[in-house]
Fold this sequence. Notes:
The chain is α+β, with helices and mostly antiparallel strands. 43% of the residues lie in helices and 22% in strands. It has helices at residues 12-17, 39-46, 88-102, 126-131, 173-259, 263-271, 303-311, 317-324, and strands at residues 3-7, 22-27, 33-38, 55-66, 69-80, 107-114, 139-144, 149-154, 159-161, 164-168, 294-296, 337-339. Mean pLDDT is 77; it is low at 1-15 and 274-287.
Amino acid sequence: MMELIYQEKETEMDQNNQLPKHVCQIGKVEGKNSIYIEEYVEVYISEFCEKEETQTFVLLGERREYDQKDIYQVNAAIRICKNELTEICELKKKIAFICHKHFPELDILGFAYADIDSKGIESIDETITQSFCTKYKEMLALYCCKQENICYIYDGLTVKRESGYYRYFSDHSEMKSLIDEQSEQSMIETEDTAVLQFRDIMKEKQMIRKQRSWMAMMSGVNMILLILVLAIGISMINHYESMSRVCMEISQIQAEKEETRDPLSTVYEEKNPAFSTEQVSDNQVKTEVTVPKSYMVKEGDTLNKISRRFYQSQDMVEAICHLNQINDQNLIVCGQEILLP
Length: 341
């Protein structure tokens, strides 16, 4: 990029139109457009080229015609945050307020991009044209990157790249005061963001504490329920063992009584099973024996004894063997569970 630094002679055009005198030519300026950009504005925009996201600015200045040339003189720039581009009405109000406060005599000339890459401008987003309304038919666009700064003219349909522009030097106090004001506002916003982040962190920690306390409480409840279930299970097991012990004692008593019965009575009962009775008292009270579903073999038991004990007869031995698939009726062992028909 060619740079030519010189001081223009004070001519009639300078006196009437107040064009900058101390200028630096960047590139080759030709055609009907002459663009003048204040050096402080250019430096201010270029500082944002290191940002990861593209930064957008509004260009303020004056436009005039002289000797069949369109003169664009950029005197100031307003940085626009990314989230502000979504609210066009609010953005227009903000730009109008800043222009009225700091630059009442300047007009909107166009916009500028600050980017880390030198991709340039190929098309103009409709949001930009709606947000940065200019009273002129054509709009000035400036693309700043680390390598170079490029100027464009947008006529509403096409984007035309300019081969060069002028950089001029002046003491722009209003631009400096605007930058200081935006810096203070940015610091306040940063502080507000830090406070909000701190509050979010504290809320998250409180939520974690509540979750931990709730989990500890649920763990205690689960432990109590587990202990209760174990206590009930142990109680049921103990009760079951007691009942089993009582049943075994009753069975042993019945077995002993069977062994001590009168042989003649036993023979009579075997021949007459329908009239089989058991003497339980001196009054000769007849009681009906309830046959359980199964029986645990004890020491000294035989199938004949078991059949007599529950059926008052040995006639059910074959049925017991068939139900339990016992081939040898004399072969049973202590502790064996036998199903009773």
